[in-house]
Amino acid sequence: xxxxxxxxxxxxxxxxxxxxxxxxxxxxxxxxxxxxxxxxxxxxxxxxxxxxxxxxxxxxxxxxxxxxxxxxxxxxxxxxxxxxxxxxxxxxxxxxxxxxxxxxxxxxxxxxxxxxxxxxxxxxxxxxxxxxxxxxxxxxxxxxxxxxxxxxxxxxxxxxxxxxxxxxxxxxxxxxxxxxxxxxxxxxxxxxxxxxxxxxxxxxxxxxxxxxxxxxxxxxxxxxxxxxxxxxxxxxxxxxxxxxxxxxxxxxxxxxxxxxxxxxxxxxxxxxxxxxxxxxxxxxxxxxxxxxxxxxxxxxxxxxxxxxxxxxxxxxxxxxxxxxxxxxxxxxxxxxxxxxxxxxxxxxxxxxxxxxxxxxxxxxxxxxxxxxxxxxxxxxxxxxxxxxxxxxxxxxxxxxxxxxxxxxxxxxxxxxxxxxxxxxxxxxxx
Length: 430
Prior knowledge:
With 430 residues, this protein is α/β, with parallel strands linked by helices. Helix content is 50%, strand content 9%. It is built from 19 helices and ten strands. It has helices at residues 4-9, 15-24, 28-36, 76-88, 103-113, 122-132, 142-155, 168-175, 186-198, 203-206, 208-218, 239-257, 272-285, 306-319, 339-359, 365-377, 381-387, 391-399, 417-425; strands at 40-41, 55-56, 62-67, 93-96, 117-120, 159-162, 221-224, 262-266, 291-294, 324-326. The longest helix has 21 residues, at 339-359.
């Protein structure tokens, strides 16, 4: 078996490429070339069977939903229910970030039922088991981490977040450039502590070729994690973030040279006016690799509404180069998200993705808005519901109103501008 990247470089169009091309309304040969050049990836493990989706430039902006148990709240059924809700409302991928319970069983159950690509952060599993045994982070055995990566690859994980850019070199740039929030990435913080207490280099960086061996064998897409991403607006675009990005650019090249698909993760918390620069900088340094962002969150001051904050930043990011938005829920910074948080998070990110797709002239985006606009002009409520990013909510709000069986809504009633404009048009010109 070869990876999608290797097939593309050999001039072969795979069934996955044809499937993606049909969904995205692009030519299969164009898609093959983009994959061959590393600008597009199809995260699809050879052991995981679902309808392939692609991430990258020229395609619709994709949305990921994070799920998973915690040590304080562990209920597999709840997480599976949340996964179903995320997919129902349009998530293109889910990530299992579980840190409580039988982690391997949880992952295997998610992979068994997921109809979209599945991602993980392998170091979470190793660190969780370590702490359950009463051991310190410094006692983490790198061999266990590589075994976990291999287990997850064999199980069918489609993409893995690996914090390979947290190195002695990148960490050194934080020493004389104090941050407000320090390191907010769990993986990044675990690796920093391990490196400091063991006076050693990051094994994920030092033994990167081992990762490539595993990912090539199973066609796992590497998602190069941003372990030094800013967790506060005041920390955005600092030396540590940029130092890590430079290393990630080198690792992108090494992965591509091995025929391994790769994308890059980005911030984080970032003021609105820095987003465009960051997106363009990442694309330049990482040679147009697909870019995966959390948010970005444009303000630190809206707990409970961070899904809105993330949608604002996500729209700007996707207009200027981000290809994959990790949703943010109203529970961000506060607690484990519930089902309603998941729904709101996915919809907010879908709105951001679609808004950016309109600007980027992605196939089908403007057609959807045109159909919606025409339906509004025609007072065609059924078509409006069908075109809505959340059809269920649109239908529910209309049907619960006093004008549920009329062509106008309760906002304007018989003063409805569209209705009066249409009726006046039948009378004649002034």
